[in-house]
Amino acid sequence: MQGSAVSEFLHRPYDVVTLGETMIRLTPHGFQRFEQADEMQVHVGGSESNTAVGLSRLGKRVAWISRMTDNALGRQIVRTIASHNVDTQHVVWTNEDRVGLYFLETGTPPRQSQVIYDRANSAFSKMKPSDLPASLFRTGQSKWLHITGISLWLGESTRNAIETAVSLAKQAGWKISFDVNHRALLCNAHDAHLYCQALFTSADLAFLPIRDAQNLWQLDKSLSHEAVMDQLLELRDGKPTVMTLGSNGAMAGDKAGCVIQRIEPVEPVGRLGGGDAFSAGFLSAWIDGKGLLGSLHWATAAARLKYSIPGDLPLFDASDVLRIASGSTGETLIR
What we know:
The protein has 335 residues and is of the alpha/beta class. The chain has helices at 3-11, 47-57, 72-82, 150-153, 156-171, 189-202, 210-216, 225-235, 274-287, 291-307, 318-325, and strands spanning 14-19, 23-28, 40-45, 62-65, 67-69, 92-94, 101-105, 114-118, 142-148, 175-179, 205-209, 241-244, 250-254, 257-261, 331-333. The radius of gyration is 19 Å and the shape is globular. The model has no long low-confidence stretch (mean pLDDT 93).
């Protein structure tokens, strides 16, 4: 962009503000097991910041809010996210607590990948409502607030912070995007349902994989995809709802009906962050008015691209996604 265009971009309202924890990820090289690794690769990863990076790289103005320990690891995380033109000025810095870590052992069939979390007592897990930047949550400052269930699973403090952020955003006239994103290692399905039910039913746009619909809302696993979507739309009073179907693609619905996007399965190089790339693709297209099917095209294209990229971050741009999405097809489902 030219200088005047850059200035205009930096002074326009945010398209999306995200809020959540980002960690350092350590991964053995190749497909090594933890017990045989003598060195590990370092990545930066967190669901909300992954989505923020994807949105930014697709041309949206995005800010990311978090609470971060002011040490070399915390500064590396924030510097990495900021390098993708995500505004990090609202991060709350502290000299206390710690930076969360997680470890990924990449498996290949028949061995599954494994994740070990080391994030207890992290700086973000102690974020309080008073840490939120009150000056940000004003009318006209952003169009959307995007959050995920992961923050709800981390404890009472972060739940209170999320609830306050949602309330402030709604008062300011922003819309709410919520990705259920259940992590069984952080919270069991029963409690996860209790913590996210109100937000899931009230959000203007909601994302979830079909497994979360089945496990958290105890929906019959023998139901067709269309029947599951019908039940979710009933819970959400017909508000736009997006459900990923694994290798079967994804579907989205609202009061007017639902659409499904079939995909060709890909062999993932970097599976982690695929769901975040999906939500970034969908939300970017939704903001641009592409509708359910057009947004699904962008979302599935973004996720497939992310599967080809090591690490957590969706390092693509709009031209990459357009190339994949332009060949997409969809099927309208009539209920």
